[in-house]
Amino acid sequence: TNFNGMTSNRMIKYDGTVWSVVGSNDLSATVTGIVNFNNSLLVYSRYGFSLNWNYSEIAELVGNNWVLSYDFPDHLYSLHVFNNELYGTTIGFTTQWTDLVYKYTGGWNDLGFVNNGASGSKLLTLNNKLTLTAYNDRTYQFDGSTWSVLFKDLQINDYIPLGNATYILGGFFPYTFDGLDYRMLYNIGTI
User: Fold this and answer.
1) Which residues contact 40 (CB under 8 A, 6 or more apart)?
2) Is residue 82 scored above 50 in pLDDT?
3) Residue-level pLDDT at 190
4) pLDDT, tens digit (0-9, with 9 covering 90-100), for 92-135
């Protein structure tokens, strides 16, 4: 992959003046997302990285090299850091509805998410809780032991806290939550 005349190895950075390559070795796959976990830069791919004939869906920047790490037990869909802990979701290929949520504690542990028709689940932090949004237009929250429905008909595509509100982009109906109430947002433009 090339950007501005340089080989980007699928990961580049901008320091405010200059673009430069991150990592001296090519990741060999499209990077789906990036997280900071334990002061380490992790990237993940839904297609997997193949470095030195080894395979993983998660790579970590160690020094100036990408190395495979946190060997995930299934087809990774997303990674998320919540309360300094690493979580991952799957996208099911065995059957249509086989998504799981895992927490990393030295190994990946299944958190018992009941799919309920979900597929392609993404994790985020909302109201200081681990939140999962799925392609069945439901959004769930985890209280540390069980999952419950937060929004029945809203799949969250992205979000940003701003002031005392959280702006949510998703489904056909964008909402804001001010800590007490959900309010419909009108006249939101598209990018």
Assistant:
1) 60, 61, 62
2) yes
3) 31
4) 554 445 568 899 999 999 887 766 555 557 788 887 889 887 76
